[in-house]
Write a structure and sequence with these properties.
By secondary structure, the protein is α/β, with parallel strands linked by helices. The chain is 48% helix and 10% strand.
């Protein structure tokens, strides 16, 4: 793969080099200085009680090393992983909880600046929850949906509601092994209980509960967030946007929204073009107001409004270093505390907005959904007021890349057959015939300990060359977007012959931008729909599909990887294994989980080997399903793929008085 000094992105590398000449420290410099602890990195350190920390090392540590309490190395490594799952699930659970309470406030008329923008999606979700919606006021249905989903967080018995959306055979596997989640908070609490000193001392038992908790994330908190966000702000449809540091404008106020929760970001999108604010910006010498995104908030507003992105996690410091950002507004998750100290070298104001996130040096502007637009307007004014303070110093970038974003399950279904014939039949047929070899969910963070974004770019390009359809989320989408990979033209130039033909016929890029990191659940619902369509596996497990997080950083990523593994998807993480000290824990995550659930969790630092493992998993799944052997350019018989024009003709004939969906 392509090597870079610190980043796999040319524009990022340019800013990093400029910063080096100015003596400015970034996460890339700190990653070089601070080497991981070799004991903690592999999961061999236990610090859950005051008899420790206990370092379980030695020639025969797996069999002989024990903590003061007697805990073995496999138990310690398993405890560490399970605590990561708990923390990651808590992050996404809180995100989903906040969205559920926002929906409730909207339904009860307490958050008047919001509205339900996708009633059809509301009714679809109500159907999953067995809530009657025919002939009822929309807000009444929304209230029932919100209350039903809020129950998922504190439920003590029963199951998380959306578990019933999974294929029946997948659910049966979960029941057999006792990992059907009850309430999200309950599973997190039990993780912490089981992993304390003197509790569960069986690695398999610990990891099994870890999977149960992870499922409460994937089929609970994260899925709740995605569905409610669609209800409130609209289910994404393809939209044009731009990516790179070049989105910032020298003659306009540049306001960056960064983080994960879309509620405030949506309000800023609504107010930023108001005539009063534009006029106010002109009084400060600016020609206008330019809104851009960073990290997963960028994905949220990009896929609904076409707001441009400056990239993912490792770009937040570099964005400030352009010298053009007048205000960076943050909410929750993946916010580097370093940005406030860095901002002092420029003129950027950093604004925190969540009571869960306070950073010394930042101005706190608490977001209140009951006066959402008032808060949003105040934030825009702060950015405008700071425009005259802009200094000339900075590394200005002009290059921008086009992006097509916003592929939801609903729209992918529509693209394959139109409003009246929407299904996953064409994609299933293309996989069965060998035109599409398989699918990969490419997700996770971008990491300064790698050539940041470089592994994402390498894998995305190599996968589509091998006729593998890529579904990207989170900072992986940002990595692909800032490399110019998220366009239909990408298929013509780089995809294998079968994937290229499918992309041309349907009118899609070979890498589909599915949204933020909580939107990994869209991959679960897409896989479920493909299973229901038939012709492939009758469960998620066994499909020619793999999940990859090549540059993962957070505990959220571990929770995501585990809920995919439990759902039946082999998952490969880049970098060293956080449980690598224990061969037994590694065996459970790869061999035992695959036997029980058809999913697995691997860690592999070599990108070439990640690619090799991925294609091997896909080809073995094809063989087990008795599908045509994949041979580039050689396809079997299949249904004719209709292009968009043909689907429109069918729709007009069926319903000539109705416009295209």
């Amino acid at each position: 793969m392509e090597k870079a000094v610190k980043s796999g992105n040319k524009e990022a590398e340019q800013i990093i080099e400029w910063g080096k000449s100015q003596g400015i420290e970034t996460c890339f410099d700190r990653a070089e200085k601070l080497k991981p602890c070799p004991i903690g990195e592999t999961g061999a350190c236990c610090k859950v009680c005051h008899m420790g920390p206990c370092r379980l090392v030695g020639k025969n540590a797996e069999e002989e090393a024990h903590g003061v309490c007697g805990a073995s190395l496999p138990v310690v490594a398993a405890r560490n992983l399970v605590r990561m799952i708990a923390a990651g699930t808590a992050c996404h659970g809180d995100h989903g909880r906040d969205m559920a309470f926002t929906l409730l406030a909207v339904a009860e008329g307490e958050a008047k600046d919001f509205q339900i923008k996708d009633v059809k999606k509301l009714y679809r979700v109500a159907g999953y929850l067995n809530i009657e919606f025919e002939g009822r006021p929309v807000n009444d249905v929304a209230k029932d949906v919100a209350l039903k989903l809020i129950e998922d967080f504190g439920r003590q018995r029963g199951t998380v509601n959306f578990i019933k959306r999974a294929p029946q055979k997948t659910q049966e596997r979960w029941k057999k092994w006792g990992i059907v989640p009850r309430g999200i908070d309950r599973e997190i609490a039990e993780c912490m209980d089981r992993t304390t000193m003197g509790m569960d001392a069986d690695a398999d038992s610990l990891l099994t509960h870890g999977l149960r908790t992870a499922l409460s994330n994937g089929w609970g908190g994260s899925m709740i967030s995605t569905e409610i966000t669609d209800i409130l702000f609209g289910t994404p449809m393809p939209v044009r946007a731009e990516a790179s540091f070049g989105i910032f404008k020298e003659d306009e106020v540049n306001l960056v929204i960064h983080g994960h929760e879309p509620s405030l970001a949506e309000m800023i999108v609504d107010v930023v073009s108001e005539p009063d604010l534009l006029a106010y910006a002109k009084t400060k010498g600016a020609k206008g107001i330019n809104l851009g995104g960073m990290c997963c908030t960028a994905n949220e507003v990009m896929m609904r409004h076409g707001i441009p992105t400056a990239g993912g996690f490792t770009n937040q410091e570099l964005g400030i270093m352009t010298g053009l950002v007048d205000a960076m507004v943050v909410d929750v998750q993946c916010i580097m505390p370093a940005i406030t100290e860095l901002s002092k070298k420029f003129h950027t104001k950093v604004l925190t907005t969540s009571d869960k996130v306070r950073i010394p040096g930042a101005q706190h502007v608490p977001f209140d959904e009951h006066r959402a637009k008032e808060v949003a307007r105040g934030i825009v004014r702060i950015a405008i007021d700071n425009f005259p303070n802009r200094k000339k110093v900075g590394s200005h970038i002009t290059k921008k890349y086009p992006v097509i974003a916003g592929f939801s399950q609903e729209y992918i279904e529509y693209m394959q057959g139109g409003k009246w014939r929407a299904s996953f039949r064409p994609l299933n047929d293309a996989i069965m015939a060998g035109r599409v070899r398989g699918a990969v969910g490419l997700a996770g963070c971008d990491n300064p300990r790698f050539p940041s974004t470089g592994v994402h770019k390498f894998l995305a390009l190599e996968l589509i060359k091998n006729d593998v359809l890529v579904l990207s989320t989170g900072c992986s989408s940002a990595s692909c977007g800032t490399a110019g990979f998220l366009t239909p033209e990408m298929a013509l130039e780089n995809a294998g012959p079968g994937l290229r033909e499918v992309c041309e016929a349907i009118g899609i890029p070979p890498i589909l931008h599915l949204g933020s990191c909580v939107d990994n659940t869209r991959i679960l619902t897409i896989a479920t729909a493909m299973a229901a369509e038939g012709g492939l596996s009758d469960e998620i497990g066994g499909m020619p599909a793999v999940g990859i997080a090549p540059e993962w950083i957070t505990e959220k990523a571990i929770a995501i990887g585990c809920y995919f593994a439990a759902s039946g998807v082999p998952v490969i993480f880049g970098g060293e294994s956080p449980v690598g000290a224990s061969a037994e824990v590694t065996r459970i995550m790869t061999e035992v989980w695959f036997e029980r659930f058809k999913g697995a969790l691997h860690f592999e630092p070599d990108p070439e080997k990640i690619l090799e493992m991925t294609l091997d998993y896909i080809d073995k799944a094809r063989e087990a399903l008795k599908l045509k052997k994949y041979e580039p350019g050689k396809f079997g018989a299949e249904r004719v793929l209709m292009d968009m024009a043909a689907r429109r003709d069918i729709e007009r004939a069926a319903k000539p008085h109705i416009g295209i969906y």
